[in-house]
Amino acid sequence: MHILFVCRRNTYRSRMAEAYARSKELEGFSFSSCGISAERNLNGPITWPTVRIAQHRGFQRHLKPMWIQATKTLLEEADFVVYLDPTVAADAAHLTTQTESETWNIAAVTSGNDGVLISESEQAIIRIS
Asked: 68: helix, coil or strand?
């Protein structure tokens, strides 16, 4: 089963969820991430908090090096899509008719919400598997 995490720019939330999920090395699962507005990214390939948190939590090696722009193909090839907030899900609606999805309510980068993101990732993986 392939799970795709989608956020706005693919520099923090979805990348963190992907790296955390990949670090679990679950048999039969693959994970990726993308951003619905990643091509307009002004923050570089990844945010500093993403790298810092992943390093601190021990899953930095699972971070991919660059953001990826969401496309119709990426969304439709995933078995399950996790939108990191309702505005992302709404903005991605024109790209796909993907019905196997879930929308979380994870705020954009703020200090201290990495624990929530990691917890939500783990809960979703348990629910899906």
From this structure: coil
What is the domain range of residue 54? 2-128
How far is the C-alpha of 10 from the C-alpha of 35, rounded, in Å?
4
Task: Count how many domains the chain has.
Answer: 1
User: For residues 35 and 71, what is the distance between their CA atoms, to the nearest angstrom?
Assistant: 9
Contacts of 25 (CB under 8 A, 6+ apart): none
Report d(CA 129, CA 112) in Å as an integer.
28
pTM attached to this predicted model: 0.84
DSSP sequence for 102-113: EE----SS-TT-
Q: Output the domain CATH number for residue 56.
A: 3.40.50.2300
The DSSP annotation for 53-87 comes to HHHHHT-GGG--SS--B--HHHHHH-SEEEESSHH
pLDDT digits (tens, 9 = 90+) for 73-104: 999 999 999 999 999 999 999 888 766 999 98
With tokens 């500093």, the residue in question is 48
